[in-house]
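Quick illustration for those who missed Monday's session on complexes.
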Amino acid sequence: MEPTRAAVPPQASAVTIAVTTGEPAGVGPELTLKALADAASRWPQARFVVLGDQPLLAARAGAGGGLAGEPALAALAASGQIAFAHRPLAVPCAPGRLDPANGRYVLDLLDHAIDGALAGAYDAIVTAPLQKSTINDAGVPFTGHTEYLAERTGTARVVMMLAGTGAHPLRVALATTHLPLSAVSAALSRPMLVETLRIIDADLRRDFGLPRPAILVTGLNPHAGENGYLGREEIDVIEPALAEAQALGIDARGPYPADTLFQPRFLDGADCVLAMFHDQGLPVLKYATFGEGINITLGLPIIRTSVDHGTALDLAGTGRADAGSMIAALDTAVTMAVHRAAARRAG
Ligand SMILES: NC(=O)C1=CN([C@@H]2O[C@H](COP(=O)(O)OP(=O)(O)OC[C@H]3O[C@@H](n4cnc5c(N)ncnc54)[C@H](O)[C@@H]3O)[C@@H](O)[C@H]2O)C=CC1
Ligand SMILES: NCC(=O)COP(=O)(O)O
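Prediction with LD2JLWAY bound:
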């Protein structure tokens, strides 16, 4: 697969990126600061707005050593590239200790970023990880950023795609996201798969410069159903969807058995794998790319990237969490925003 990070045109226009710092008890706040210290210097054309509770960010700034407290935030802001938009916590927060009282705070950060992006104030949003359970414990039904972004932007269908950015430029998109496994088969339909393939094809062309993305599609069942002896979803749903997508000019191939698809001789020359469910595709991707992978929501009217990991409560406040994925998410958001701005200018 071709690398996800595209080159940025030399005369790139300025872009503004909102960063939500996520679950306050997790690693999001400290990784945001660490990653921005790295990314801002490499992206002189970018401005970053960090959304979060300022005292919390100041407290986490020193995690693992280095400059701490308000002086650390002031040092980051000194270049003029990084601004802090204070959004207050509901209650004080200790690293690693979840408190449902702050569940709505996490959503407030997200709402502010989404509203700003829809209004044109932000060219992209980058989300640090949140704890899905805490938001539910706060009384708000919540399955993930992906579904929330779809709902808040009025988008009928979005696609979660994770991508490696370093030595393993694998991309894995998901037909279903945060669903119990028992609900996956019923959620798959021909129109839904065709729309999923259409979104992957369109966004890989527009944002990644791939002229005709080759998409490899997994089956659902072991051995892709073994000619119907191990399940019929391949015959009844996936194959008809592939035929319809191919008739639309989409280079979609399959269905392939998921257990044998992820090897170089199949992946070389392909641009994306479409897996049928979360834990069919993501374990492979994370095994190959953890620490440098990113999560992109395709099909939205706004750009959203994120990390490939969760809140890592066991590492929060220690400074030991790896900022590689957050750096990659920032890099990708900037390059996507710059390319979209250039495409808009070109008409
Ligand atoms: N984008 C998002 O908001 C995401 C949120 N989550 C949420 O995070 C919460 C915790 O999920 P888990 O399954 O425990 O996964 P996790 O990714 O938080 O942790 C899994 C393991 O990986 C380690 N790890 C995670 N990030 C790391 C980093 N940056 N550097 C070094 N080690 C790291 C952790 O210490 C832990 O041992 C859940 O509520 C989940 O829903 C999970 C994935 C993405
Ligand atoms: N495993 C990826 C994941 O759960 C990310 O979810 P989201 O919060 O980005 O929708």
